[in-house]
HemX protein (Melghirimyces thermohalophilus), 272 residues
Amino acid sequence: MLGDERLLYDFIISLYALSLLFVFSDLVQPNRQGRRLGLLFLVAVWILQTVFFSWKVFDQYPALAGNDSLLFYSWALVTVTLVIKRLYRMDFIVFAGNLLGFAFLASHLFIAPTESSPLTEPLLSELVFIHAIMAFFAYVLFSLSTVCAALYLIGNYLLKRKRWNWTLRRLPSLGTLQLFAYRLNMIGVPLLMLALVLGLIWAHEKVEGGFWYDPKIFGSFLVLVAYGVYLYQRVVRGWNGQRLAWWSLLSFATIVVNYIISNAGLSFHQWL
């Protein structure tokens, strides 16, 4: 059963992450298909959690002992947010609640209840692996967004000076570059957010309280804040054009700083 549990753990986490990504994308840019997919994945997560928790109740009573309470708390959050979604359609509350639910679910799935459990090390290893994969994908998306921003600035410069050369003709339109950069950041921000949640859970188990003093942690949150501000300026304040492109380049500088910290011997991340 341990192998089956491990597969179920990975599957639930993957579905939950996909649900949060689609819900977040719908919040930033209304999309009916994305909204439906987010709800579909969230319902699937609730069904799998219900099945797993029911097995815990009947096979390992009391099921709410120790870390099992985290599973119930996550299940309860998903249940309540689904009700809110159905009755009130408060999407921001649904997203925030399920982000918290994801954190508690990851805590239950990846933090072993006892030191003797044979799943402890494999699951913690999987946790840091998923954390790293999500973070890398987020940084890749941010990097591509920066490329789009740089191309936007180049295209805008050539257009203003009416330099109709081969470079300008081969560039995508300014509107396309700006939209593509925005969508890449829209996906990258929640990916990094989820990666940080998993990373903090892993660090709490391996490094205990000392990880809060790690400069890499501050650097990662700085990256998240920088790109979060990008989305805020784009969606709420209506920024566009050069100002948003320059902010994208500035935000990418936080990734460079974070990378330098990781490789300068200042962080425990160098041993990962």
User: Anything to note?
Assistant: The chain has two domains: 2-110, 132-271. Residues 20 and 96 are 9 Å apart (CA to CA).
